[in-house]
Amino acid sequence: MRYFTRRRGSAGGGMTRAYGEQAFTDEDPMNGVANLFDVGLVFIVGLILMIFSTYRIQDLFSQESKLTIMKQSKDGELEIIRKDGRKISAVKVTKQTAKGQGTRLGVAYKLEDGSMVYVPE
Predict the structure, then answer these.
(1) Number of domains forming the structure of the chain
(2) Does residue 78 lie in a domain region?
(3) pTM of the model
(4) Half-sphere exposure of 48 (CA within 13 A, CB side)
(5) Beta bridge partners of 88
(6) Which strands sit side by side in the sheet containing 87-93, from one edge to the other?
(7) Is residue 74 in some structural domain?
(8) Is residue 88 part of a domain?
(9) What is the average pLDDT across 101-119?
(10) Is 26 inside a domain boundary?
(11) Residue range 35-51, pLDDT digits in tens
(12) Given its phi and psi angles, is residue 81 left (phi above 0), alpha (psi -120 to 50 degrees) or beta?
């Protein structure tokens, strides 16, 4: 029963006060590292929420939304990603000219500011 009566760090044996009890006090220099980790996690979550609200990415998760994204790679290749409800399709745009017969659907105009307007017939 002598193991239950003696305490660590007490006078007469075991660890001394300088190495035993002081290591678990608030003066430990590593206590701030845990707080920095928590602050980092809060910052990352806030950054993700800000990006979602700025770019309206929450529309990607809505089942009723219709969304069109145009993406251009480093080599200049364009890709159109279209989301209509739950269906997502991706089409790569090429520089090949189309051949064949068809019917005229309308007229496209390029305005002075560089935007284009399509007018159906």
Answers:
(1) 1
(2) yes
(3) 0.42
(4) 6
(5) 83
(6) 66-72, 78-84, 87-93
(7) yes
(8) yes
(9) 88
(10) no
(11) 888 899 999 999 999 98
(12) beta
The range of the structural domain enclosing residue 92 comes to 64-96
Tokens of 121: 């017939």
> What residues contact 78, with CB distance under 8 A and at least 6 apart?
70, 71, 72, 92, 93
The SS3 of residue 45 is helix
The pLDDT of 25-29, averaged and rounded, is 67
Q: Distance between CA atoms of 109 and 46, rounded to whole angstroms?
A: 43
Tell me the CB-side half-sphere exposure of residue 21, using CA atoms within 13 A: 8
d(CA 47, CA 53): 10
Report residue 90 as tokens.
């991706």
CA distance 7 to 13: 9
CA atoms of 91 and 70, how far apart (whole Å): 10
Percent of residues, the chain, with pLDDT higher than 70: 78
